[in-house]
Amino acid sequence: MSVFDTVQRVVGNRLSLILIGAMLLVLPLLMTSSFQMRLAVVVWVYAMAAIGLNLLMGFAGQVSLGHAGFFGIGAYSVALGPSQLGLSPALSLPAGIAFCGLLALLLGRPILKLKGHYLAVATLGLGMLIFMILSNEVELTGGPDGMRVPRVVIMGWKVKGTETWYWITGIALLISVWLALNLINSPTGLALRAIHDSEVAASVLGVDVARYKLIVFVISACFASAAGGLLALYNGHITPGVSDFLVSVQLVTMVVLGGMGSVGGSLVGAALIIILPQFLTVMHEYEHAFLGLIMILTMVFMRSGIVPSISKAIRSRRHDSNS
Amino acid sequence: MTAILETDGLSISFGGLKALDNVNLSVRPGEILSVIGPNGAGKTTLFNLISGVYKPRSGKVLLEGQDVTGQSPDKLAGRGLTRTFQNLQVFQTMTALENVMVARHLHEKRNVLAHLLALPSVRRQREETRKRAMECLARVGMEHYADQTADSLPYGALKRLEIARALALVPKVLLLDEPAAGCNPRETEEIDEIISKIAAEGMAVVLVEHDMRLVMKISNHILVLNFGKKLAEGNAATIAADPHVIEAYLGLEGDEGEAGAVAE
Ligand SMILES: Nc1ncnc2c1ncn2[C@@H]1O[C@H](COP(=O)(O)OP(=O)(O)O)[C@@H](O)[C@H]1O
Ligand SMILES: [Mg+2]
What we know:
- The complex is a heterodimer of chains A (323) and B (264).
- Chain A is mainly α and 323 residues long.
- Chain A has one domain (3-244).
- In chain A, 78% of the residues lie in helices and 3% in strands.
- Chain A starts with a helix and ends with a helix.
- In chain B, helix 3 (96-102) packs across helix 5.
- Chain B has 2 domains: 1-80 and 171-264, P-loop containing nucleotide triphosphate hydrolases (Rossmann fold, 3-Layer(aba) Sandwich); 90-168, no CATH class.
- Chain B has 264 residues and is of the alpha/beta class.
- The longest helix of chain B has 20 residues, at 120-139.
- Classes of the chains: A mainly alpha (323), B alpha/beta (264).
- Chains A and B meet through helix 1, helix 7, helix 8, helix 9 and helix 10 of A and helix 2, helix 3, helix 4 and helix 5 of B.
- The structure holds adenosine-5'-diphosphate and magnesium ion.
- The site of magnesium ion has 3 residues of chain B, from helix 1.
């Protein structure tokens, strides 16, 4: 088992990237409609946000029920950047990410002093606050009707079409996975895991607990805003619904269902939460009930989430056949 | 040599209870100071105050002559003070090696951007950290446990893992809270050797321990607490002969083995 673990640690990172890369390449060959490709774009984007949230929840052990707020800020920044500041849409994306990171830095400081349920409620409030601002500042954001997002133009090339966005968001997803895995396997990742397991032990060993919580909060907010920005650029239109509380809940569900602390799990979780409802529409009014049932069953039978549970099962089978 | 760690009138109360009342102590580099006393005497509370886990209501903590009262545990770790825990605080989901690697934190470059981008320097540093952590595991005889997750290790190993972790910080002052509790005689013997060795290298050790044989053997100085107050202080012989100590503490704990050890 220890040999297998060591091998996995060495190739694990690269392997996940190769697997996801291969999936990105193969999927379009299997798709039969542009609707499926559309769905894939949405999955990649939500997966990015979920991976960021997983860094906060699965590694540092801090919950956020307000991440849709950051998602929404990213989305609106690519609309507001051009309309308010005259920035190009392409430049508005990084500007929005930077703004969101700064906001998370300022708000995270007081909020992250809270623990457990209190932190959950405070982040919930933060998300709702952002939603209210986006809905109510009608002059700026167009209110509930939303805003148009101008097309990205790069050196005269108009970036449009679902297939183009499939590749853009796919590459963005790959980069997100790469960054997340790098962080997890760095001293920062180790410090975050230490905080998760025992804050007091981490701190007497020199880990500045408050600082690391803040760092990962900011990073996860940046992931969410990047995802929101990409979704808005792809859709060409944005409404306050992107920052709705339900989106925050969806993101948390993706993380937990896929597996806390598993980057691949967040991708699987995002795929499930986005794609499953499409299949379930045949069940008409029972759609939501059925989705709920699936979530309950997954949590009961795969407590640690889909990906960790499956990989553990595979590992123990391998272990049995080796011995 | 002057004291590296001193406390001056350290006090704290929980509700109406004076858990610690005006406690003074001082340790010099290379010295082992043992703090003993019955359960609930305030020994762990003393460690919590010194290590910054709790803030004292009054009194001072001086580290290398500087007032560090009320500083956070990570700041104090940066100044060279760390501790272990009576009720284990290992990182359960990590391997033994990773547990120790956490304690190399302050010796590493902590540039988050470099970590996100996995720059080559980060990888090189990782190897160095791994090597150092492995050395610390070896010092407590745990190198063969390196890749096992902490939650699969036996209790005695976890006790030593906490010591290895503390050593990886390369502290100047180390507070050990009952490192031999729950360990068998052979494990206790090993812990005795480890502590003596690290003190011999110049580290100041403050030891809370119930095993009287161990305490009497390795301490340069002993402080006895009872109900949060100093009851007695001195070297092993003085303490063993002190009638207050025998009455308040040793009499309470008084099983044959421990009483015998004191009488030696
Ligand atoms: N966080 C706390 N809250 C309330 N009471 C505490 C706390 N920590 C310690 N105490 C009390 O302080 C006294 C000393 O406890 P402690 O320092 O753990 O004793 P020892 O380590 O000597 O056995 C005990 O009566 C204990 O119940
Ligand atoms: Mg105690």
